[in-house]
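Onboarding guide, step 5: your first structure request.
Type a short instruction followed by the sequence, for example:

Predict the 3D structure of this protein.
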Amino acid sequence: MTDAPTTDAQMTDENRTPEESSAANRPGDTQPGERDDAPLNDAEADGPAKKSLFKKPVFWIVLIVLVAAIAIGGTLYYLHSRQFESTDDAFVDAHIVRLAAQEAGTLTSIADLDNRHVKAGTLLAVIEPTGQVDRLDEAQANVDQAREQYRQQLAQIDAAQAQRQQALSEAQVPIAAAQKAAQDLQRYQNLARLDPNAVSGQQLDAARKEARQTAAQAAAARSQIDSAAAAVTVARKQADVAQATISARQAAAAATQTNINNLRLTAPIAGQVVNRQVNIGSYVAPGSQLMAIIPETMWITANFKETQLEHMRVGQPVDISIDAFPGVAFKGRVDSFQQGAGQAFAVLPPQNATGNYVKVVQRVPVRITFDVKNGPDPRKYPIGPGMSAIPTVKVR
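The system replies with structure tokens like these:
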């Protein structure tokens, strides 16, 4: 039989030495007839196996340092934050003065001082005097009339005193005659008891008659004195009435003058004029609000939770941040605490004794004054009531 043709690969293998054959059959080497670009498995592609991240010491060192930093930072933050109590339920507050008309009339003048600072006593508005000046003249005339009547009463007192003095002078004679007649009658009666023949009955009767007549005249004179004294008393009472009339009419004149003064509205305090609601020619009635004045003295009303008041005391320092000026660090002091939660003063306070009760942490208003010695002066900034603020009280 004819042998099959021998291939080049077989001839090559036959001609190799045993060492070359073993080297050619090693794993990873390309065998005859195999392609050099055959795909490799994953282990062969990635090369040597990588070490896990959790087995690396550097990872655990970084993790421990990071946890320690967070724990220390959290502890320091807690120790620092527990020294302060803060709330965003706070605002600038002040006692706003609202100016209102006290008399009815038309405005004839009003100062153009919107959003301007004024001093106490600055004229702000004038109301037209509708008949007030005439009423003041009439009241002053009534005062003058009452004074004239009082002077007349004083003159009547002098006249009554003169009449009383004249009555006293005129009564001296009849009183003296009555005393003499009474003494004579007494002597005659004594003589008649000692010796009936010493005094005649006719003499005794004449003495009795004389005593009676002079006694009547003396009584009449005394009546004249009492009448004159009563006239003096009446004159003095009438003078008192006239003086009281003067006082009453002076009070009426003063009231009219007050009404006239009320026609001129002046600033009762120093502050900024705001919220003007009228102009020249506007008719105003008593009680009509014309404008308002923001005083120079302002404070912060902070509504803290009742659970925040445990360590809060009067006089503690406060850092104040006002939303309008976040970059300005205002300083303050705790001034006072309201004795009662805000809900207790509501128009319709809650009645916890009725219905279902749900406990809610209440808020208590705390007044904080600005400390201009240690911080900026709020009067130098356009700050007014109602502006939001965030006070932070150092309680420890």
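Each response can be followed by summary notes, for example: The chain has a mean pLDDT of 80.
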